[in-house]
Amino acid sequence: MAGVIGPGLGVEELSLLEKSLGLKKGNKYSSQGERKTPVLQANDGPSLTGLTSIAIHLVKQAKKEQLLGNTAEEKAIVQQWLEYRVTQVDKLSTKEDIRTILKDLNSYLEDKVYITGNNFTLADILLYYGLHHIIADLTVQEKEKYLNVSRWFNHIQHYPDIRQHLSSIVFIKNRLYNTH
Amino acid sequence: MGFGDLKSPAGLQLLNSFLADKSYIEGYVPSQADVAVFEAVGSSPPPELYHALRWYNHIKSYDKQKASLPGVKKALGKYGPADVEDSTGTGGDSKDDDDIDLFGSDEDEESEEAKKLREERLAQYESKKAKKPALVAKSSILLDVKPWDDETDMAKLEECVRSIQADGLVWGSSKLVPVGYGIKKLQIQCVVEDDKVGTDMLEEKITAFEDYVQSMDVAAFNKI
């Protein structure tokens, strides 16, 4: 499907990330194993395996270390959510799984603008890419149910250079009734 | 536009529901709009208004960059939901407009000559109008007559409606329009002379058949 990245398409996601970081194309990727784990083929030195390791490497290459968190605490949160992305979001299979994840995220994001709170980080980018195909399939009612996720997602997709060719997902607040 | 009094619980409530699906007051980046509202709010919103609180804390984190945030500060009433009337008294675009009398004339007093001319023209117009044959003003009305349930005999209902006779009232074509659940409403056309028959009188007479008619609406009213 055009404009959507499916789960496990790490390589495509990494080229999106490269572009959003303002890096020139030049890195070569391949995928490995059944789960198509992305591998970064380095010209010198050993190759890098795994989505998060490569993503962190790219951020450093782009000299945008602030995307990994400014304080020690923020850095830890970014790490934790990158791990969450790979171990939880990418392993979603049933509708029930998706509901659980969205519910968790929804309550987590209730008091936050970004994943780490007040700063935009790599965790936002990778969660956005990872959730895109899931959010795209939600119904209007579900989007409204997971209001905090929707707000965050809508915010990130409007962040410059992040969405690129991915489809823009429409969020509407149901105006048929008033919440206040 | 506007949130009303942001120091009041009602104003904060408005802000809270406004921010439920938004990260910032305007667009997708922090701007002077946020600063303006932030300053108006003044202190931390209560925890139960978590959308407002989240936004408040987030804007607080920009404290040092406040001045460098993009955008130009506008009056407080310019922000927020569009369906709320501005009560801050600062965004007074509409109030300004009220002061300008677009149709007012510059001179307060008509000059004598102009007055004469105007009277002359008025007289001319009056006489012209008098010569015209008096046209009977007529209207074509489309009525929706709703029965009580699907068991109401619609043929009888129509008969009842058509039995209403009045000077200046002519019944036209009718049809049954399905409403749902097997219920049909009667849509009937009639032509009335405005001076003789009014919709009030029609409604009164039609709803008088209370065994058949639940309610009656005027679906369309056109002057002929």
UniProtKB/TrEMBL annotation, chain A:
Residues 57-176 form the GST C-terminal domain. Keywords: Acetylation, Coiled coil, Cytoplasm, Elongation factor, Nucleus, Protein biosynthesis. GO terms for molecular function: translation elongation factor activity. Pfam families: Arc1p_N_like. It is found in: Cytoplasm; Nucleus. One of its GO terms (cellular component) is aminoacyl-tRNA synthetase multienzyme complex. Part of a multisubunit complex that groups tRNA ligases for Arg (RARS1), Asp (DARS1), Gln (QARS1), Ile (IARS1), Leu (LARS1), Lys (KARS1), Met (MARS1) the bifunctional ligase for Glu and Pro (EPRS1) and the auxiliary subunits AIMP1/p43, AIMP2/p38 and EEF1E1/p18. Can interact simultaneously with MARS1 and EPRS1. Forms a linear complex that contains MARS1, EEF1E1, EPRS1 and AIMP2 that is at the core of the multisubunit complex. Interacts with ATM and ATR. This is Eukaryotic translation elongation factor 1 epsilon-1. It comes from Python bivittatus (Burmese python).
UniProtKB/TrEMBL annotation, chain B:
Residues 138-224 form the Translation elongation factor EF1B beta/delta subunit guanine nucleotide exchange domain. Residues 80-114 are annotated as: Disordered. One of its GO terms (molecular function) is translation elongation factor activity. Keywords: Elongation factor, Protein biosynthesis. GO terms for cellular component: cytosol; eukaryotic translation elongation factor 1 complex. Pfam families: EF-1_beta_acid, EF1_GNE. InterPro entries: eEF-1beta-like_sf, EF-1_beta_acid_region_euk, EF1B_bsu/dsu, EF1B_bsu/dsu_GNE, Glutathione-S-Trfase_C_sf, Transl_elong_EF1B/ribsomal_bS6, Transl_elong_EF1B_B/D_CS. Residues 95-112 have a biased composition (Acidic residues). Residues 102-129 form the Elongation factor 1 beta central acidic region eukaryote domain. Belongs to the EF-1-beta/EF-1-delta family. Catalytic subunit of the guanine nucleotide exchange factor (GEF) (eEF1B subcomplex) of the eukaryotic elongation factor 1 complex (eEF1). Stimulates the exchange of GDP for GTP on elongation factor 1A (eEF1A), probably by displacing GDP from the nucleotide binding pocket in eEF1A. EF-1 is composed of 4 subunits: alpha, beta (alpha subunit of the eEF1B subcomplex), delta (beta subunit of the eEF1B subcomplex), and gamma (gamma subunit of the eEF1B subcomplex). Interacts with elongation factor EEF1A1. This is Elongation factor 1-beta.
